[in-house]
Amino acid sequence: MPRRLLLPGAALFAVVAVLVLTGCAGTDGLGHGDSAPSVSVQPRPEAVWPAWAGRTSRAPGAEASTRQPPPQPLRGLKVHAGGLASMDVHAVLRADPRTRPLADRGMIDRPGRAGIRPPMFLDLTGDKKPDMLVAADTESGRSILAVYTERGGKVYPILFTSGRSVSVETIGPDLLVRTPCADGGEQAVRFHWDGARMSTVSDIKNYKRSPHPTGTDDRRPGPSGSPADSPSPWGP
Q1: What is the C-alpha separation between 206 and 210, in angstroms, rounded?
Q2: Is residue 141 left, alpha or beta, with left meaning phi > 0 and alpha meaning psi from -120 to 50?
Q3: Which of 56-60, 138-142, 206-210 has the lowest mean pLDDT?
Q4: Phi and psi dihedrals of 50, rounded to 5?
Q5: Compositional bias of type Low complexity: which residue ranges (predicted)?
Q6: Residue 214: HSE in the Cβ half-sphere, 13 Å Cα cutoff
Q7: How many DSSP H helices and E strands does the chain contain?
Q8: b/e map 68-78, b = 16+ CB within 10 Å
Q9: Which listed residue, of 8, 54, 67, 118, carries a Cα 20 to 30 Å from 23's Cα?
């Protein structure tokens, strides 16, 4: 190993030794007369083998999304000054061929019922305008999630996925969609805006606790496709 790679490790060992000898700092803030530490810039990823590094500067998931045609605006809809929040959720679902079968269902305000959940509005695309998130639950326990954005007065579908007992969370500007697995585990799919649609950046299955004495969870990556790849969102 080159000598220059050993020096940072030796310096780090020296720092750790000093911390062990002096003990940990207090957790109640600065001491009397101490000056505030300067704000450090967070490090950015750097390639270990630059020649093998990706050449794109687009957001994660952009490569996969380029294999699909860009989303087309929904026909017959025009967004006015009030934005997506002023639109009838039933009209939006009716204009989308994938959600049309559920468009005329009633609204629901709590789990355990079939119908359309109250639409939520979050800025997932970073354009300072809220996007529309719509979820609908069916009698079989299966749910669909659709996300729409607005550009130039038109409504664009940027995400469609489905699963059983879908729960949705946000991680910064990303969406995390959780669905329980038949074996008692859980699937968590993370979606990120890539400039065209909300694309999958991670798909992880957390399996049931291992029966081995260690008691550790068996974490394995799930399939590369998202739940949206299911040929029939209304099937079992």
Answers
A1: 11
A2: left
A3: 56-60
A4: -55, -35
A5: 222-236
A6: 4
A7: 3, 10
A8: eeebebbeebe
A9: 8
Q: Which residues, in sequence order, are CB contacts of 70 under 8 Å at separation 6+? A: 196, 197
pLDDT tens readout for residues 173-225 = 899 999 988 878 899 999 999 999 999 999 998 876 555 544 444 444 444 34
pTM over 0.85: no
Question: E-strand spans in the chain?
Answer: 115-116, 120-122, 131-137, 142-151, 154-164, 167-171, 174-180, 186-193, 198-209, 217-221
Extents of the domains making up the chain: 73-225
Tally Cβ neighbours within 10 Å of residue 88: 10
Percent of the chain with pLDDT over 90: 47
CA separation for the pair 197, 32 (Å, rounded): 52
